[in-house]
Write a structure and sequence with these properties.
Blueprint (H helix, E strand, L loop, with lengths): L12 E8 L8 E8 L6 H11 L26 E4 L2 E4 L5 H7 L4 E4 L6 E3 L2 E2 L2 H9 L20 H11 L6 H5 L16 H14 L4 H11 L8 H8 L13 H5 L6 H22 L1
Parallel strand pairs: 1-5
Antiparallel strand pairs: 1-2, 3-4, 3-5, 6-7
Helix pairs in contact: 3-7, 4-7, 7-8, 7-10, 8-10
The structure holds iron/sulfur cluster (2 copies) and FE2/S2 (inorganic) cluster.
One iron/sulfur cluster binds next to helix 9 and helix 10.
Keywords: 2Fe-2S, 3Fe-4S, 4Fe-4S, Iron, Iron-sulfur, Metal-binding, Oxidoreductase, Tricarboxylic acid cycle
Family: Belongs to the succinate dehydrogenase/fumarate reductase iron-sulfur protein family.
Cofactor: [2Fe-2S] cluster; [4Fe-4S] cluster; [3Fe-4S] cluster
């Protein structure tokens, strides 16, 4: 193992193995890059250096690796990828720490459960469709000033705050065995509108995912958000809902914001039972 605080033992170069893909549905392939070691790099800075040199370790000129990022401070979630086998944000993945675990190389792969757009950039639309399905928002009934809303108790705030930190990064769904990848091919002459409709139907049939379940619990526990709590529970008890969770608990262990996802899933399960009984009596 490399002792990285000792200048004498710092590596001269960092080997970076990247799983590349030239476009949606194309065959993936691996390329190895080599960049000079610098202290305190994160994975985004490594990718910037690879883009600047645009050649592999054996000198072959290649197109720069594509990736996504935004905030660079683990807030937007867009830079999520699989780094040395673990799904996480590349902006907060520190190379010195990664080299302590694996001094030989960094291995960068796109997330597994979303269609690849190119290289390390994926299409996370399904994640947002899940939030849409469970109506993960506070409904607005007008745009006039209606005064301040209902106050939240300290206990409610404490329960809600951790859930509100979700940045829709997708780590939880990428690690969930119940969340299977959906990648549809566009049919000949299919319009954008028809393709989107078909894609949303496929997303709605499949497991909505722990992030959406947790957000439904957040908004059902909000003084104004709970106005449409029954609609959220209808979505969570429909096809692809809470019943599909196998309770493997992978989601909670990879969430970078340490959101208590399994607590949310437990709450959603109990709320779903009450909702179903209520619906049965309302018949
Ligand atoms: S607990 Fe449920 S949502 Fe979380 S990883 Fe397991 S199956 Fe997926
Ligand atoms: S629950 Fe955690 S892992 Fe899942 S999308 Fe939100 S922040 Fe990411
Ligand atoms: S760039 Fe926003 S979380 Fe990494």
């Amino acid at each position: 193992m490399i002792a990285l605080d000792s200048a004498a033992k710092r590596p001269e170069f960092i080997n970076v193995r990247v799983r590349r893909q030239d476009g949606p549905g194309k065959e993936p392939y691996w390329q190895l890059f080599k960049i000079p070691y610098e202290h305190e790099l994160n994975v985004i800075s490594v990718l910037q250096r690879i883009a600047a040199q645009a050649k592999t370790s054996d000198g072959q000129k290649v197109a720069p690796v594509t990736w996504d990022c935004g905030c660079l401070e683990e807030v937007c979630g867009s830079c999520t990828m699989v780094i040395n086998g673990r799904v996480r944000q590349s902006c907060s993945a520190l190379v010195d720490r990664l080299l302590e675990d694996n001094p030989d190389e960094l291995v960068l792969e796109p997330m597994n459960k979303f269609p690849v757009v190119r290289d390390l950039m994926v299409d996370r639309q399904r994640l947002f469709r899940g939030l849409e399905k469970v109506k993960a928002w506070v409904p607005v009934d007008s745009y006039y000033n209606m005064g301040s809303g209902e106050r939240q108790s300290q206990a409610t705030q404490e329960q809600n705050y951790p859930l509100s930190q979700c940045m829709s990064c997708g780590c939880c769904v990428d690690s969930c065995p119940q969340y299977q990848k959906i990648e549809l091919e566009r049919m000949p002459n299919e319009s954008d509108e028809d393709f989107l409709k078909r894609q949303n139907e496929a997303f709605d049939e499949a497991f909505v995912g722990p992030h959406a379940i947790s957000q439904a619990m957040l908004f059902n526990n909000h003084p104004t958000g709970k106005a449409i709590a029954d609609e959220r529970m209808d979505a969570l008890t429909d096809t692809g809902g809470i019943q599909m969770c196998g309770n493997a608990q992978n989601c909670v262990s990879v969430c970078p914001k340490e959101i208590p996802l399994t607590t949310s899933i437990g709450r959603a399960g109990r709320a779903a039972t009450v909702h179903m009984i209520k619906k049965w009596f309302d018949k």
